[in-house]
Amino acid sequence: MKTIDIINGPQNASSVILGCMRMPALSVDEAATMISTANELGINFYDNATCYGENGEAETRFGDAFQKTGIRREDVYIQSKCGLLFQEGEFNWTKENILSSVDDSLRRMKLDYLDSLLLHRPDLLYDPEQVAEAFDELEKSGKVRYFGVSNVPTF
What we know:
Layout: E1 3-4, E2 13-14, E3 18-19, H1 28-40, E4 45-47, H2 57-69, E5 77-82, E6 84-85, E7 90-91, H3 95-109, E8 114-120, H4 128-141, E9 144-150
Helix pairs in contact: 1-2, 2-3, 3-4
């Protein structure tokens, strides 16, 4: 598998990322097989989001399945996204939501840290200072190593 060095991000990341949005449709054993198979093929980057599945079910399934694989945490990159609230039909890039979303993601996936956290889709009413404060706090606490955005157009 070809790897890439992400600028200001993970190094030697697989050029293919396993998206976990549909993971709630799998049993824990099926999800573990999928993760293991991807790993055997050289995929070392896994993408999740707080809004995948009801109440973060995709993250929960991933966490339960990942534990069954025997893959070492330090050998993979795990990313999640926050800020898109499907149930409420809104976006929320507030400091409070970012911090609580990361804590929830870590708990659901049974992790100590995320390699990457992305803000999921644009919140046009966000306060950049709140985002910066949240990112600073998450980096200093060791909960998140890298930050970015997803589904945000560039101009």
